Prior knowledge:
- By secondary structure, the protein is an all-beta fold.
- The chain has a single domain (22-196), classed as Jelly Rolls, CATH 2.60.120.
- 3% of the residues lie in helices and 40% in strands.
- It has one helix and 17 strands.
- A seven-stranded antiparallel sheet has the order 6-5-4-10-2-16-15, with no helix packed on it. Strands 8-7-9-3-13-14 form a six-stranded antiparallel sheet, with no helix packed on it. It has a two-stranded antiparallel sheet with strand order 1-17.
- The radius of gyration is 21 Å and the shape is globular.
Amino acid sequence: MxxxxxxxxxxxxxxxxxxxxxxxxxxxxxxxxxxxxxQLTESINLIAGDKVRFKYKxxxxxxxxxxxxxxxxxxxxxxxxxxxxxxxTVNAGAIKxxxxxxxxxxxxxxxxxxHEIEHTLTTNASISLLxxxxxxxxxxxxxxxxxxxxxxxxxxxASEIIHQIPLTNKSQGxxxxxxVGDINAFMPNYTDAVWRKP
Length: 198
């Protein structure tokens, strides 16, 4: 008698059991706002016209200090940050929040939700730090730490994604691997306690 490999009618009647798909758990790393950030394994050289995208979880209260999303390696000013008055600061370009053009000085969301930032650069910049700003690149000293989850970092150039680091893989721990490109991210002062459910 031939063996039945698959018959939809038998499955509907409950005679065949299909293997359930593996459930992939989702995680985000909550930066501590004092000593943790994501340092890239090497600098990414951005050029005018590049789009940098990432998501972050907003606070539920207005910011009381400057918090950098990412920073250039020279001149040390954060390229995108939250000011102490709760508005975004944007250097060398313009940003969209959740797909909407953002005007300098507008209040950042304080709803505790995840928001996507897209920064289109108007000049060249080299970056190697996410979730903080450099005081000194040569000494790897940081300032303006973000106290939130930062994830889904990517760089688009001429309509092509050239770098992508999800920053959401709990099993990879302190070193998060790129899914596009070969530049990874490492968290100094990492502990397993950074991981949260989104």
